[in-house]
Amino acid sequence: MLGYDWPRLHAALNDLPAALLLVAVLFDLVGLRRPALRVAGFWTLVVGAAGGVLAVLSGLEAEEHIAHGDAVHRVMETHEKLAFITLAIFAVLALWRILRERRMGNGERLASVVVSVIGLGALLTTAVYGGKLVFEHAAGIPTEVLQAEAHERAEGHHHHGGEGEEADGHDDDHEIAPPAAGSAAAAPAAAADSTKPAGHTHAPGTPPHRD
Question: Cα 143 from chain centroid?
Answer without folding.
Answer: 20
